[in-house]
Amino acid sequence: MQIQLDNLVPVPLRDKILQRSSEIWNRPVTFTPGSFTKIKAPSGTGKTTLVHYLYHIRTDYTGQVLVNSKPWGTYSKDAIAGMRQEQVSVIFQDLRIFEQLTALENIELKRVMNAQPYCSAEKVKEMAARLNVTHVLNQSGRTLSYGERQRVAIIRALVQPFQWLIMDEPFSHLDEDNANRAAQLIGEECKARKAGFILTDLDNDTRFAYDSHYNL
Amino acid sequence: MPSFYQLLKKIIQTGIGRSRLIMAAGGLGIAMILLLIAIQAHTDFDQLLHNQRNANESADFLVINKKITNAMMGQNAKSEFTPAEITDLQKQPFTEAFGFITSNQYKVTAAAPGDLHFYTDMFFESVPDSFIDVKNEEWKWTPSDNTIPIILPNDFLNLYNFGFALSQGLPQVSQETIKALPMKVTISQGLMTQEFTGRIVGFSDRITSFLVPNSFMDWANSKFGSGQAASPSRVIIKTKDPSNPVLAKYLEDKGYTTNQDKIKYSKTKLIVQTIVSVIGFFGLILLVFALLVFSMFIQLVIASCKKEIQLLVTLGTAPRQLQRYLMRQFVPLYITIGIAALLLVAALQWWASAKLAEHDMFIAQWLAVGTACAALLVLVLVYIVNRVNVRKYINAIS
To answer: Where are the alpha helices (DSSP H) in chain B?
Structure first.
């Protein structure tokens, strides 16, 4: 699955973006499949907006996001759902956990959404243990702290098959130790799938061996 | 571990529109019962008519003639059927078989044997043998026979026995006595006369006329008659259902009459059909409203879970998966309603059958196949309409 940007400009940020130079906005960009990509973005430059465009949950832009050389808009709803189950996974900045489900149910929901689950229930337990959230698995989503929610969201993103993992400040609520554990797990899972990721964050970091860097 | 649908159940709460769902389900149930009753009642009434009146035969015979009005009096030709009218009658859907009633074109007199001093002018008619309800070995005639078999109407004998004989102080006679009496029958035209022995061989309930075999009538008409085939003024038809309103209307429109007693059920049938149609119509209207309420319920459920559904779609749930999940919530309800309605109507049918049997009216104890098919059809319709609705509302927000 190839992701390309073609002179992408968000309509709400248009004036601001056209006044300065960016390595992403308003130019052609090709993300090489399997590469670890870091996009560094100060606040207010449209970082979350970009993630939403890449994952196709917002479309208020000019230019195009091309998936396998075709714009997102040309795919049917069921085809997009299929890609979100098989080819592209996401960790949102606002985490998006179902509060009426427990932590484990949130992960299970994503795991059994595919008719043939990619990983086993034991694998989920194992990942939870590695991220130190085993003790909250049966807790309601409503009562989880942000740090716990973030780790649940990371595991949820890793239970499906994917070629691209899109992450929006995935360690923002984690302490250094937990962030490193999470990064290590994400790195391993991407390698296991021969998948690439696109990670946006505020600052520089050395948690991954990035293949490419962009400034938004 | 819970399945995907079990997890969806925790996210998409269908409890919110409970009152609406109950209304829709109730409406669907009542609509279904009305529709099924209408269809079942229609079948039952048909069955009732058939059983009651034609216990042994599946068809009935009607003798049809034109109504004699004051304007027609004295002009016998006006009561005859024209060839066009006959063809028209023959091709009506209710006409299963058609026959002419042929009249004599010569004079007939009959005299009782011995010293009974009975002498009368009379007439003969003939119909094809297949229309006669008297099956008799003696019912045949060839030119070499001097004896003519005759069938009398039962009504005629009754008129004589209970009307004429009693009031005139004459002896009543039995069918057997009459059959044993040979009559002297003389047919003539101008100077030609010929004498025969007439023998009564049976009594007909079906045709009110003095019947002789067709072969005799043809022979006598050609020998004594004008030689031209006269247009018939009475015809006989065989029909499956004399209570068919179409038949009654046809006769009335054309100004024909027949034994009104035989078609009297057509009025009853018309009334029953009207009532049944009205019930069915209300059933249909109610069904439409039930579908509307269902659609409102679906809209409410989806609108109330809009955020959750959007997040599910964001996480990769296919709209198709959501549709299937929602339909799974509703389908068992339809099937339950359908089965409940069928059971209720079946119970009604069983009860009605028992009640009617007390009055010697017999209808099936079980539901008609058509009724069950109708129930299935309604369920399929509800399913399709709801599926379309679910798809529409899911697509609108995803």
So the answer is: 4-11, 18-53, 83-90, 154-158, 166-168, 175-180, 214-224, 245-254, 265-304, 306-314, 319-358, 369-397
pLDDT at B391: 92
Could you tell me the CA-to-CA distances from B177 to A35, B154, B196, B201, B396 in Å, in that order?
Answer: 119, 14, 20, 11, 91
d(CA B96, CA B98): 7
User: Which chain A residues are Cβ-neighbours of B311 within 8 angstroms?
Assistant: 96, 98
Chain A hits for B11, Cβ within 8 Å: 98, 100-101, 109
Q: Strands, DSSP E only, in A68-132?
A: 70-71, 88-91
From A52-66, A167-181, B98-112, B253-267, the region with the lowest mean pLDDT: B253-267
* pLDDT, tens digit, 9 for 90 and up, residues A88-129: 999 999 999 999 999 999 999 999 998 889 999 999 999 999
How far, in Å, CA of A74 to CA of A69, rounded? Answer: 11
Confidence of residue B50 (pLDDT cuts 50, 70, 90): low
**Rg for chain B, CA atoms, rounded:** 34
CATH code: domain of residue A141: 3.40.50.300
Is the C-alpha dihedral spanning B190, B193, B198, B202 positive or negative? Answer: negative
- Give yes or no for A77 touching B (CB within 8 A): yes
Three-class SS state of A38: strand
The total number of structural domains in chain A stands at 1
Specify the DSSP element, H or E, that contains A153. helix A146-158
Stretches where chain A sits below pLDDT 50 are: none
